[in-house]
Design brief:
With 169 residues, the protein is mainly beta. The chain is built from four helices and eight strands, in the order E-E-H-E-H-E-E-E-E-E-H-H.
Length: 169
C-alpha cells in the first residue's frame, strides 16, 4: 500500500499534545485519535492545519506557537473573584466552564481557575493566552475519505469526544 500524504479530501487521524515551552508541562493532550477530512473540517488552527499538508501516517510534527498571536494579549479585566457563598456550588471545582452573559446579550465562557475556602476565581481569557507552547502532533492515519465522511466533515458513528472536535479552534 502506498504512503498517502495529507491533502484536501484525505481522511486524517491524529493525536496531539500541547507543551508549555517555559515549564515543559503538558497543558493539553488528546490520546485517542481525532479524525477529520482535510480541507473540509478544520479542527485545529489554520497555522497547524497548514503544517499537516504533505505529511503522512507515522510523521510527528513539533510546531512552536506563540499563543499571544493566536489569542491576543491577556486581559486581566476578564478575571473575576467572588466570595464562595455568592457562587453556585456546581462552580466550586477547578476547570469548570461558566457561561456568562453581559448586558448586551453577548455570551462568553469563563473557566474556574482558583477555589479556596473563601473565594472562587474565573478567567475569561483563553487558557493558552500569553504562553509560548510547542504543539506536538502525531499522524496516525491518512487515507482517501469516503463520500459520507466528506459530506459529514469527519468520521461517521464515532464517540462524542471525536464528534465535538469543532470546539478546538
Amino acid at each position: 500500500m502506498q504512503n498517502m500524504d495529507i491533502q484536501d479530501g484525505k481522511f486524517v487521524e491524529l493525536t496531539y499534545k500541547i507543551i508549555d515551552e517555559k515549564t515543559g508541562n503538558i497543558l493539553s493532550a488528546v490520546e485517542f485519535p481525532l479524525g477529520y477530512v482535510h480541507g473540509k473540517n478544520e479542527i485545529l488552527s489554520p497555522e497547524v492545519m497548514a503544517e499537516l499538508i504533505g505529511k503522512s501516517a507515522g510523521d510527528v510534527i513539533e510546531l512552536p506557537i506563540d499563543c499571544e498571536q493566536l489569542y491576543g494579549h491577556r486581559d486581566e479585566s476578564l478575571v473575576f473573584t467572588s466570595h464562595i457563598n455568592n457562587v453556585p456550588e456546581e462552580y466550586h471545582k477547578l476547570g469548570t466552564t461558566v457561561t456568562m452573559e453581559n448586558d448586551k446579550g453577548e455570551v462568553k465562557n469563563f473557566i474556574v481557575t482558583c477555589v479556596d475556602e473563601k473565594s472562587v476565581t474565573v478567567d475569561g481569557n483563553n487558557p493558552l493566552c500569553g504562553r509560548k507552547v510547542v504543539f506536538i502532533l502525531e499522524i496516525v492515519t491518512v487515507r482517501d475519505a469516503t463520500d459520507e465522511e466528506i459530506n459529514n466533515g469527519g468520521p461517521i458513528n464515532t464517540d462524542p469526544v471525536i464528534a465535538n472536535t469543532k470546539a478546538l479552534h
